[in-house]
Amino acid sequence: MTPFVLVPRLLRVAVVLVRYRLDDLVDAAHLFRPLKLVRPLLPRPRAAVRALSRGARLRLALTELGPIFVKTGQILSTRRDLLPADVAEELAQLQDQVPPFPGAEARAIVERALGAPVAELYAGFDEQPLASASIAQVHPAALADGRQVVVKVLRPGIAARIARDVALLRALAELAQRWHPNADKIRPHDVVDEIEKTLEHELDFQREGANASLLRRNFAGSDDLYVPEVHWSHTGEQVLTMERVHGIPVDDIAALDRAGIDRKRLAAKGVRLFYEQVFRDNFFHADAHPGNIWVDPARTGEPRFIALDFGIMGTLPEADQFWLAENFMALFRRDYRRIAQLHLDAGWMPNHVRVDELEAAVRTVCEPYFTRPLSEISLAEVVVKLFNTARRYELTLQPQLILLQKTLLNIEGVGRMLDPKIDIWAVAEPVLADILRKRYSPRRAFAEVRKRLPEWIHVAPRMPELLREYIEQATRGERRTRLAAEDLARLEADARATRDLLGGALLGGSLLVAATLLWTLAPERGALLPALVAVAGALAFALAWPRRR
């Protein structure tokens, strides 16, 4: 999109900003320095607008600008590392209240997407939507066998509109990059990339259905969480058909009390679900605000949540998952040295950061909290402040961790809304400790070895050949190597370590193969001999593994 095409849209944004007198917010961010010159010419705001906080004025302005700006505000509300607290709190209240599009148009979209008339696909299809949002709207329907479902239909023309609005956001990001004094830390272009990726994911209902299907499988038979079933025969990229569920919104406390729901038990389950999704399954609902969480009214003694809207799900790289879990455990135990060392070992901090300085910074953040009863301490607030402190030490975090931080804030908010006196720490620590004990147990490690053993057996015979090819390529100069004189001794030591590791790997791999064959082909001889051979193989690996010097 050319800059000239963007001008009318930029002017409309400017008009709305002026109407809600957001020039003070924009000026504080140093986005438009010329505003100082034209401020005397701006009209005085209405009395009702003057009485509002800057965050409330921004929320209303985004609502007026349209659904994509509403979605942008929702995403920005998760970036509490970038926004002032009062603005983030207001943006978190944004709701997609968008007028519905005609039901006949929704019917036509369903027929084009699924390739059959609605009358053949459904026994009944109500053109009056249950709900309408910026991306889609939802219609009640029934399958031929009588099962009640809901049909989520993509809003017509939304992909093109998103593309136009993202182009406008990129233009605004360019202005922020040019004028904001802390643009290198805010990274406005990265923020727009994150918004665009999130919106693209939400536009693909096939992806959302796959997310829901996996989450349902992870919690099959659970007393804590129910996930509606996806009907794949009636689902495509623009249409998603799911089981219709009925529940009480988690923030409707009065309705929960009338239904006799045990809110304290429910709050503890919410905390447990967060840690199970993140650290047990590595697949978590990353948009867990009250609008997407219901409570099953039919289960009072053993209450459970009902999850909705699976467009935004989160996962973590295995390494980050481990480091993050260890950080949580260190925080539970107030081991500040461990937290500092973990940040360095994980590679989240540059090597030049001193561990004792980082430990002191962590202690400075945490100690004031621990003077209060644990039930009054917000774990999410402590984590957010730790991240903000670590940013001063050049912390580098992946977007998945920001998503996780937002999810933790949402889950703790829901927990405290259900039970204001909940002790998040007392609930979370044993759950996480149990998950880690099972995840990193010797049995799990041997299971991983058994799973990967065929791959190792397949590669092992080629290792000498691959090593020879690598050395020949390096000798011919086909692999660029930069050698400094002071590195020669280290390279020689590395070569010896590689030789020892190769020999140990071949011996260890052979022994593990032998143990597996003994175990599978001669089970009547018992497990003692295979176990001894496997231990010998593991020792061969351990003895050959290079030591840190």
Features:
549 residues, alpha+beta, five-stranded antiparallel sheet, four-stranded mixed sheet, 25 helices, 11 strands, 59% helix, globular
Average residue-wise pLDDT: 78
The helix/strand class is: alpha+beta
Please tally the helical runs, counting DSSP H or I stretches of 4 or more residues.
25
Strand content: 5-15%
Taking pLDDT < 50 over at least 5 consecutive residues as the criterion, the unreliable ranges are 481-486
* β-strand number: 11
Shape annotation = globular
End-to-end distance: 56 Å
Rg, Cα atoms, Å: 28 Å
Helix content: 55-70%
Largest sheet: 5 strands, antiparallel
Task: Walk me through the topology.
Elements: H1 3-19, H2 23-28, H3 35-38, H4 47-50, H5 54-65, H6 67-76, H7 85-91, H8 103-114, H9 118-121, E1 124-125, E2 131-132, E3 136-142, E4 148-154, H10 158-179, H11 183-186, H12 188-203, H13 205-218, E5 225-226, E6 239-243, E7 248-249, H14 253-258, H15 263-280, E8 284-285, E9 293-295, E10 305-307, E11 313-314, H16 318-332, H17 336-345, H18 355-366, H19 379-391, H20 399-418, H21 424-439, H22 442-459, H23 463-476, H24 488-521, H25 528-544
Parallel strand pairs: 5-10
Antiparallel strand pairs: 1-3, 2-3, 3-4, 4-6, 7-9, 8-11, 9-10
Helix pairs in contact: 1-5, 1-10, 5-6, 5-7, 10-12, 15-20, 15-21, 16-17, 16-21, 17-18, 18-19, 19-20, 22-24, 24-25
